[in-house]
Amino acid sequence: MTAVLGIETSCDETAAAVVEDGRRVRSSVVSSQVDLHARFGGVVPEIASRAHLEVVNEVVAQALVEAGTDLDRLDAVAACHGPGLAGALLVGVSAAKALALAKGLPYVQVNHLEAHLYAAFLEEPEVELPLAVLIASGGHTMVVAVEAPGRYRVLGGTVDDAAGEAFDKVARFLGLGYPGGPAIDQVALDGDPAAVVFPRPMMDQGHDFSFSGLKTAVVTHVRDHPDLAVADVAASFQEAVVDVLVAKLVAAAAEAEARTLVVAGGVAANTRLRTRLLDAAERCGRKALLPGRELCTDNGATIAAAAWWRLRQDGPTPLDAGVAPNLRLPSGG
Ligand code: KG4
Ligand code: ZN
Asked: How much is the pTM?
């Protein structure tokens, strides 16, 4: 049995978790800063770093207590080193290195995007492979074919805004507040998704995404039709995003001959997306795996799970390794 502590501080969640053998979550603690950033309408990097610094030790301590373990019984300490905000990443990476050095444990750096893929293995350890995974968050939107843990191929990504970013920007324009995804999800429940037919960008153009034109289309349409109900606009916008996300994931699954469709990232919490994915999976004869919200959004458990596989594959990371704010997800394996 191997126990890994995973630390995540890439954006606005300070998180730590203990995971056994890359599959069993013993504890997962997340301290969200969303309230600190809400009045600015987005994440303020300086505030994020400072807030991580204030709570990281407490969050790690709580993760150890909840797992019923302590530093002396860990086998490795991992942290997300990118992509993300440089100052924020430094807090988690420094904390992990300090613990590793003090206890003589291996340190493992983890790519945030790779970690998102592991939500599938934590939710369902026996998940049927290969997987087609959609990662849709505030910073990223991509489809990845996963043949096994550590063996994956990036099929496509966004050429401009991420899906969550589009939700946030449209919500701000509609006066629905921050973060915009949950607000639009809620308001759209009372709206007509067919009220306005917004564009479905790059729908039939390979595996890449584009959302900035859709956001502009919403702004232009609302300015031209000021009497439209906000709920109808929200529902119609959401339907356009969901149509694209579902179609691209289904196409990725066909290309990868995937048995299972998976979603991860904050947007994976979207009610309409989840419903539509279940339908789509049934129609294309595949399974849908929708990990719980706590595994979809940023957390330490997926970091620890990814670290367990990385440690076996690549060994420990040298302690002089830094952070990588612009890290991408390379096709690996
Ligand atoms: O994965 P996440 O928690 O943090 C990042 O790594 O970005 O994702 C946050 C993003 C935000 O853009 C937020 O608006 C969006 O996920 N989001 C949603 C929902 N919940 C969160 N988007 C649509 N529907 C939701 N229910
Ligand atoms: Zn994320």
From this structure: 0.95
